[in-house]
Amino acid sequence: MMTGEQYKASLYDGRATYFEGERIEDVVNHPILGKTVADTAASYDRFYKPGKDAISDYMTVPGSVAELRAKVEMHHEVDLLTHVTYASIMTLLTAADRIGDIRPQGAEAIHRYVKYVQENDLRITECITDAKGDRSRKPGQQDDSDAYVHVVARKPGGVVIRGAKLHISCASMGHELMVIPTKSMHEGEEEYAIACAVPVNAPGVKIVNTTYAPRHGDPRDFPISSNRVVPEGFVIFDDVFVPDDRIFLDGEWRAAAVFAHSLGLWERLGGLASMADGADLLVGFAQLIAEANGLEKVGHIKEKISEMIIHATLVRASLEAAIAHSEVTADGAAFPNELFTNAGKYHGAANYSLMVRHLHDIAGGSILTVPSMSDLDNAETGHLLRKYLGTKQSVDGVYRARLFHAIRDLSADAYGGYRAVTNVQAGGGLYAQRIVTRNHYDMKRAKALALEMAGMEAGHADLKAAE
Question: Check: CATH 2.40.110.10 for 4-255?
């Protein structure tokens, strides 16, 4: 296993990383991107165990409901890249179980690769969403064939791929890129049915980063986003060679969607866990600012907070149900329940904007207009601002200003926009969760219950016969 310092040293490997128009030669010490490196390094130290054969607790495969629950609870203790690595490992193992009959050598390659990642304590990022070009056309119908990552050449011992993957969290800070098809493919689109693993520093890989991180000198005005920096990578594969032992799918178009569906399960479980905590956070801020404003006993304020509490409770209940109803495969791996995972993720994402609206309605316009903390420090204006921002003896102006800055940072600034979009899009959009929820819901049982309640026994018998 690597320590945090060893992880940092591993990033000096010639990777082509770009940020705001410049190539970044030293991502470790970069004033913005380096914060993500530091978070990941802290997780390395958090899970470090000495010994030649040691494997991080966070990178092992859960084999029971209790172990899966422990992994979800660990989610709160690690950085995003470490969590994404775990989700990538589970995605690959889930896919291996499903493609064994179609491409047995791909399933074997996955198991070897997962062992390699675990033994070398590497970090993986998930590369799934393509540039896509004209969304009304299939991959093979695009004006530019590179709109989806595809195989452009075959060489002895491997293939050459070209294309781009978008929205890749922490891509520049990992070691490996898990490249998988973004959707199902059709006959004639074999070149797009490619799943493989690519080192971040492989020749031809270029990563262009963007981030919501504040460009502001005083972290007191950005108390949340200044400590939670997540860069998103635009990953370009400019004729990248991939050796055979790193190829998991190659031309088997019928299995192209397997990887996306497998990733969706683990990304949505992680998203659901984050939403459960995030919903409680919104409730906490709503109650605190209501009390600071002196409005905690007003009827419509209490109603809004009650609705936020119910939302938070239902999201967490879905998470608990997804874990409690998990299944253990023949290989001994525990997988969360797909119905509760997808239904919970959908509910949390679909109602998030309403909960934020309640918070903004309760807090008021000072979310956006409260002066900076340095203005409160100013000898000429500070005492006056503190006076007029205070509401009662127990609530001074500094306390209330800090709450406003935290609420703005969380929900109404660059990081707030990031959360609003990722809550909907992470793990696939809302439509994807509706499809999976419907596919896993017991519709036959629901229809049978309705027929029985209506006294339509003949119809009930027909249903049972059809089963």
Answer: yes
